[in-house]
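Aim 2 progress update. The chain analyzed this quarter is reproduced below.
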Amino acid sequence: MVIIRPKKKELYHKKRLLTTLLVSGFLFAVFASAASAQVDLGMNFAMSFGLPSNDIRILISGIIRSLLGLVGFILVLMIMLSGFKYMTHGGNEEVKSQAIGGIKDAVIGLIIMMISFSAAQFLIEAVADATGIL
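Predicted structure tokens:
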């Protein structure tokens, strides 16, 4: 008579599967009633964590305006730095051409930023007028 014994690896996998099923069943039994309950997850819930009570569209429009203002500030600093390089190039043509290129790049970036700021402002006001939030 031959007795076939399961290998240790197979026993390990069966025990692991049984443990996983038992833990999952326990967690389901404990938390199923809480998950099916009607929980208030609205603005009062958000304010209890210290989150702002503003509409998300107002928050996003503020972030867009702030980022575009920051980009404009950085571009003005780039113009000033390139202008300083241009004034102090001391006859070095390579530094002079780099300074002129930096000024051109910063002015082009500033123009693009102003156009995008105007477009964002228009869209924000259009959405605000359509929804009546601002």
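Helices lie at 8-36, 43-48, 56-87, 93-131. Residues 32 and 52 are 30 Å apart (CA to CA). These observations will guide the mutagenesis experiments scheduled for the next reporting period.
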